[in-house]
Amino acid sequence: MVNDRGQLYTIEGIAAGMIMLFTTYLVLGATSVYTPGDSHISDMQLEQTGTDALQMMNTPANGTSESQLQQIVENNEGNTFNTVFLDYVNNKTGSKADNLHYTASVTYYDILNKTTVTLPPFAFNRNLSGVEHPVRVTELVIANKQFPGGSGTPRAVLVEVLLWRD
Amino acid sequence: MADDAGNLSIDFLAGFTIFMITFIYVATLIPGLFIGLQSSSIDYDAVAYRTGVVLTEDPGMPYNPSWESPSVADSQILRFGLALSKDTPNILSYEKINRFFCTTEFVYPQDYQSRAVFGDYPYLFNISLQMAGSNVTQSVGDVLPEDYGYSRRVIKVKEHSNATLDFSNCNLLSCPSPLAQYALTGSQAGNATIQAFSLYFNYADLLDNGPANNNPAYQINPLSPSGTGQITGGEGVLVNLTGLGSLPQDNNTRVNLSSISVYRSVSLAPLGTGQSPFEGPVLNATNPSQFELFIDGTPVTTLPQPVTNNATLFIPPGLLSFLGQGDSSTLLNVTMQFSLTNVTTGNPQPDRYLNTTQVAPYGAFQYNYTNPNITQPYLQNGVMEVAVW
Fold it and tell me: Which keywords describe this protein according to UniProt (chain B) (predicted)?
């Protein structure tokens, strides 16, 4: 004998189908797909600003003076770097300034020991705690200063800045 | 008994209908699923980036004569680019910025879309520029919507050179160095009733011997952007003479700026002094409309004019190029001539005044890279933002 226990009847089937479809619609509509490309955009913008800032800091204001970045590296002026760099990266054309964080360090090549040495950060406005997602921007600077492991001047050193927004 | 073989059951009909509806629904849903992937903001950001690069790293098109020159008509401009030259990215030209942001000349958005933003889609945008320490923003475009593509560039703008000579510390007997050479003192003074202040430009020297390996960013460039036969772009020169009231030794001396003359020599180095080795004058202006002349703070268009304390001569962009006939071997002498008279009788009155005739070697104030009275070209910081939607 045919037993109809556990069966889904027509009307209930339609109702259940509707509920399932509606649920699917809600779920799909509420999710936005975040692609890797999207995060790449904000990183790229940050890199652009940082690279521009370092490049402009390494451009002398007139034909006879040294660039600001060159002076900063030669005299290890962390405070000046802090002021000037933040001015460059935070300035916007509107009245509201940006709010970026960074740490900056200098890397040189030790000719004697044939190693690359990165000095501790000489300027920063916040410590990297590890949860940030910084971008790395660099600028080669010609400095009239002696670095360990080589006697000659000028020396080319790399100014490296980790830049992030929180 | 009824045979129900071959009948369509109502269960089958209902099930098939639901299946078909679902199938059609899913089929229409699938393209919509990828809308998130084809994010418009990615596209806008890319266009904003591209526009930022075109504006800050490219000198624009046409290049020679450069698009910012008044001689280049709007319709001839193919691409806006604000960079000074292709070798100086992020270093912008003052003249290019001014023409770019001239919204009476170019119409938003179509003129800018075809020359700076590009693309098939008619993007709307807002481009703004602000110099550091200034609260004036130059901008073109619409009010920003909620969501837009964005690019920010850190820039520098080249400021032109200028010469400032302040004679206010001159007393009856002498002038402090290095100004003393430009004013007759002691026994030299007191004979001349007509005195002259000349500016001397050696184009070859200015174009070849600029600082920092002749970097265009720091060059005094009388020909840039080059162009011949007509007034094109080029850099301006500002000469500011102040404190002139301290020069005459007699209180009854009245000083008039009587004329501004321009003498030119092309491809020939004059060895003598003053104007005699030159051709000319090529421009003898008692109506100095080609210059911008300010006497004691007031703009002046006719000469002669009485001078009390200050005279400012601005040779506007393009005039040096025009006067030099676009030739890089030009030598130019711009002479301001003053006549001295007695304030009561009106007769010529000899007295001490501006006079460059005795200055070695050319009898003129040399406009070059080493003159201590000249503020050399320098770079100003600024920021430019591009928003596209």
Answer: Membrane, Transmembrane, Transmembrane helix
SS3 sequence of B284-335: EECCCCCCEEEECCEEECCCCEECCCCEEEEECCCHHHHHCCCCCCEEEEEE
Predicted confidence (pLDDT) at residue B277 exceeds the cutoff of 60: no
Q: How far apart are CA B370 and CA B239, in angstroms?
A: 16
B128 touches chain A (CB under 8 A): yes
> Contacts of residue A14 in chain B, CB cutoff 8 Å?
14, 18
Chain B, residues 192-251, CB within 8 A of chain A, namely 210-212, 215, 217-218
> Does A52 lie at the interface with B, CB-CB under 8 angstroms?
yes
Asked if A56's CB is within 8 angstroms of B90's CB, the reply is yes
Give the chain B residue nearest A12 (alpha carbons).
B14
- What span, in angstroms and rounded, lies between the C-alpha atoms of B159 and A55? 19
Amino acid B227: pLDDT = 40
Q: A143: which residues sit within 8 A by CB, 6+ positions away? A: A70, A73, A74, A153, A154, A155, A156, A157
- Cβ distance B378 to B217 under 8 Å? no
Q: What is this structure's pTM?
A: 0.77
DSSP-derived secondary structure for A120-133: PPSEESS---SS--
A128-A130-A132-A134 Cα dihedral, nearest 10 degrees: 70
CB pairs under 8 A between A and B: 110
Predicted ipTM beyond 0.85: no
- List chain B residues with CB under 8 Å of A41: 41-42, 45
Give residue A135's identity as a one-letter amino acid code.
V
Domain ranges (residues) in chain A: 1-33, 40-165
**Residue B39 Cα to chain centre, angstroms:** 40
Give the model's confidence band at B233: pLDDT under 50 very low, under 70 low, under 90 confident, else very high. very low
Which residues are CB-contacts of B266 (< 8 A; sequence separation ≥ 6)? B324, B325, B327, B329, B330, B331
Give residue limits of the domains in chain B.
44-159+379-388, 162-366
